[in-house]
Amino acid sequence: NMAGTLLGRKPVKLLQRFLKSTFCHDVASSSQLSSEKIVIPNRIPRSPTAILEALASTVSRDSSGPHYKYHDDPYLTPGSNLSKRVFSLSKEAGRKAARWIRDENAAFFTHRPDDPFIEAFFPKMTYNEESNLSEETLRELIQKCSVSDAITVYQLSQSKGIELSDNVYQELLELVAYYNCEDPLDEDWVEERWYRQGVTAVRNTWKDNGLAEELFKSLSTKGSAAYGALIRGMAQYYQVDRAWQLYQECKEKNIPLDAGTYNSLIRVASFLRDSFDLRWQLVKELLTSMAESGVSPNLGTLNCTLEALSQVATWRQAKQLSLQVIAEFKSLGIQPCLATYYFLLTIHCRERGPISRILIDILDHIEGKQFEIEDPKDTFFFVTAMDVSRNHLQSLEVAQRVDKLLHTGNNYCLIGDSFKESIYYRHYFALACSTLIIEDFMEIYNDLVPHIYTPEPGVMEEVMKAISTHEAFEYLPQLWSDMIVFEHTSRDRLLSLVLSVLTKYQPSEENKQLTKQLATIAWDVWTRVQEQDETRHNKVSWNGLMIGDLLTTLVQCGEYDKSLIVMKEATTNAHKILGYIPVNALQILNNAAIEKEDAETCVSVAMYGLDAGHQETGEMVKQLQSKLNLSLEHQAKLSSAFGTELLNDSS
Amino acid sequence: MTAVYMTQSWRACSSLRLGHSLFSNGLLRGLHTTQAAHKAQAGRYRVTRNRSKPLTYEMANQPCQIAHRKSWNSWNTTSLYEGLREPETVVDDIFIRKFMTGTWHNLFVSEVIIKRQHNMIRIAGIVQRKIAARKMYFLIGYCEELLSYWLKCPVKLELQTVPDKKDVVYKYI
C-alpha cells in the first residue's frame, strides 16, 4: 500500500526521472528533441510491384549461365549465336501457333472461370456484320491501338449508318496517321521485337489517298489537331512534299500548330532542300515561325534539330551549330537526353575528321545517372559511344566508363535490340583484345563469353592474332573448344589462322600436356575437314600453307605417325589441295624422317618437293644420302628423278 | 440342377457360387455374403520370366510407398481445409496430362508432375532427346501458351531432358 500510494501520487514525475536516468547520455539531445517539432513525412505512394522491383535491383545478370529466357537444361542451352536466335524465335513461334489455334477455335475458349477476368487469355473479338457496334467499341479499340480492328469497325459503322462524333473521328485519324493504317508488331512478341533489325529504308511508304486522308476530308471542321495529326503522320512516313503542302495551307489559313508537328517537319527538312545551307535555313525558318506562334519548344525539338544537323554532318558549320543549339536549349531549361548525346556523337566523331573528345565531356556529365526512355533514338547512344571509344578515341578507359554507365540501375534496358547489343560487345571485345595484355583480356573473355556475348568469326580472328603475338599458347585449347561450340569450324580463314598459330609453338619438357593438347587440336582440324559432308556448298578445302602448318605442328609436337597420314593424303590427292606445301614444312618433315630412319618417307618428300619445284629439294636429297643408307629401289627412284650426277656429288 | 458352393478364403470372407454344374459351361452367378476383399493389384507390375520389363523408380515403388519412398504427382491445396475447386482441379489435371503426353509424342519418360503455386501451374517431367532442340522450344512455347489460354492462368513448363530412355530405368523385373 505504501508503494501504491507512493506511485499513485507522482507517477509521472517518477517516470520522467527514471527515463532521464536511463538515457542520461542523451540528456542534451532529448532536451533538444522535446523543443523540436516532430515532422511525420508524407506517405510515398508505392506501385503494386514496388517490393519486387526493390528485390530485383539487388540481383544483376549472372554471367555464368545462359539468359533466363532459355530453358534450364544442358540440351536446351544455346552455344552459338545462331542457336541463341533460333531457340528464342522458335519458342515464340510456338506461342504464335497457340494463339492462332485459340483465335481459330474461339468458341472453345470462351469459358470464364477466372475472377477477375483476364483479357489476355480470352480469344480476340472479331467484328463482322452481326456484331453489336457502337461508338464505345471504336473508342476502346483506339485505346488499345488495334489499328486493323478499328478500321474494320469504322467501315462497318459507315455501312450500317451509325453516327460517330467528331472526337472519335479525330482520335481515329490520329491512330491511323501514326500507324499508317497498318498494325504494329504485337507487344507480346518480345523475341521478334528483340531480334528485328530496326533499320528501315528511308523511303516514302505513306499510303496516298488512304484512310487517313479520307478521314481528314470527312471531318467537318479541320482544326489544328486534325492538320497536326496528318502532317505528323506524313512526315513520319516520308511523304514530305504533301506534308509541306499541308503546312503551307495551315500558314495561309492561320491555323496554329503544336510543338510535335513542328518537330516532325524539322526532322525531315533534309528531304525538302538540297544544299546544306538551305537545309539549315529551313530549320531556322521553322524554329522562328514556332517562336512567333508562341509554341514553346520541348525535348523533341532539340532532338529533331540535332537530327537535322546530323544529316548535314559533313558541313563545316555543323559542329559549331550543334553546340550552340544545345546551349540555347539549356538556357530554356530543356535537359538533353541520351538521343541528344547520340546525335552529338554522330556530328562530332566523324570517320574522316579531327579527333573529338566530346564523349569524355558527355560521360563526365552523365556518369552514374539512371535513364528512362525519352526518345526512340535513346537506344542508339550506347552502341555509338562504344563505337567511338573503339574506332575514334581508341581508349579502353572510356569504353569501361561507358560500360559502367550501361550497368548502372536499369540502364541496360536502353541497349535496344540484339543487333545493337552484339555490336556493342563486339566493339568492347575487340578494343580489349587490342589494348590489354593477354591475361587481363582472357579475364574479360571468361566473363562475357559465351552467355552474354558470343564472338563472331571476325572477332575470333583478332583474338587468335593477339594470342599469336603474345605467344600465349595455353589458351588455345579453351579457344578451340569454344570455336567448336560457336560453330566456327567451317570457316577456312579461321582454320588456317589456328594452324599458323600452332606452328609457332615450341614444345619443351615442362608443358608436355600442353603439347599433347595442341597436337590434338591440329589433328582435330584435320579430321573435321576430311570428314566434311561432300555435298556442302561452302566446304573448307585445303591449301598448301594449311597442310604445311599442319605437318609442322604434328612433327614438332611429336605426332610423327599422324603426319605421315597427312603426307600420304597430300601426295595421293594432290589435286584437291590448292597450291604446294611450303619448303620449310617439307624440311622439318624430312629431318624428322631422317631421325626415325624412315627412308620411304624421305623419298616421297623429295619427290613431292621436285613436283612442287622447290629449289632446296636437292639439298634435302644430299642430306638424306649422307645420313641414311638407301636401298637399291630408293636409289633408283632418286636417280631417275634427280639425275645421277647429284647422287655422285654427295660422296 | 443348381449347386451351391461355399468358399471361405483366408480373409474370412465367404462367397457363394450358384451354378448348374461344375463341369459344364454353365453360367455362374456369384454373391458375396461378406465384404468383397480382392487382392491389391493397383500400380504393381507383374514379374516377367526373363526379367525384361524395365521399371522407373516411380513404377518400381508400389502405391503403398507413397509418402514413404514416393511422392505425389499432383500438388495442390484442394484437399486442405477450405480448399476450393477439388473436382475441377482433378479434371484439369487429367486434361493437362493427356495434353502433354499427346503433344510430346512418345517423348515423356516419366510421369507428368503438376504443381499449383499461387496463380501458376508448374508442369514438370523428363523428356527424351529425340527431337532437335529448336523443335523442343517450339513445343515448350506452344504448350505453355495454349494451356494458359485453356486454364486461364499462367503455366510454366520445367522439363528435363535425358539422352536415352534407359537412363530413367531403375530396375528390370
Describe the model.
The complex is a heterodimer of chains A (651) and B (173). With 651 residues, chain A is mostly helical. Helix content of chain A is 62%, strand content 0%. Chain B is α/β, with parallel strands linked by helices and 173 residues long. Helices cover 24% and strands 27% of the residues of chain B. In chain B, the strands form three sheets. In chain B, strands 5-6-7-8 form a four-stranded mixed sheet, with helices on one face. In chain B, α2 runs antiparallel to α3. The mean pLDDT of chain B is 88. At the A-B interface, α5 of A face α3 and β8 of B.
What's the helix and strand layout?
The complex is a heterodimer of chains A (651) and B (173).
Chain A: H1 2-9, H2 11-22, H3 27-35, H4 50-56, H5 81-104, H6 135-143, H7 147-160, H8 166-179, H9 190-195, H10 211-218, H11 224-236, H12 240-253, H13 259-267, H14 269-272, H15 276-292, H16 299-311, H17 318-331, H18 338-348, H19 358-366, H20 380-393, H21 396-406, H22 418-435, H23 438-448, H24 457-470, H25 476-485, H26 492-503, H27 512-530, H28 544-556, H29 560-572, H30 583-595, H31 599-612, H32 617-627, H33 632-642, H34 644-650
Chain B: E1 3-8, E2 14-19, E3 29-32, E4 54-56, H1 57-60, E5 74-75, H2 86-103, E6 113-117, E7 120-128, H3 133-151, E8 155-162, E9 169-172
Parallel strand pairs in B: 5-6, 7-8
Antiparallel strand pairs in B: 1-2, 2-3, 4-9, 6-7
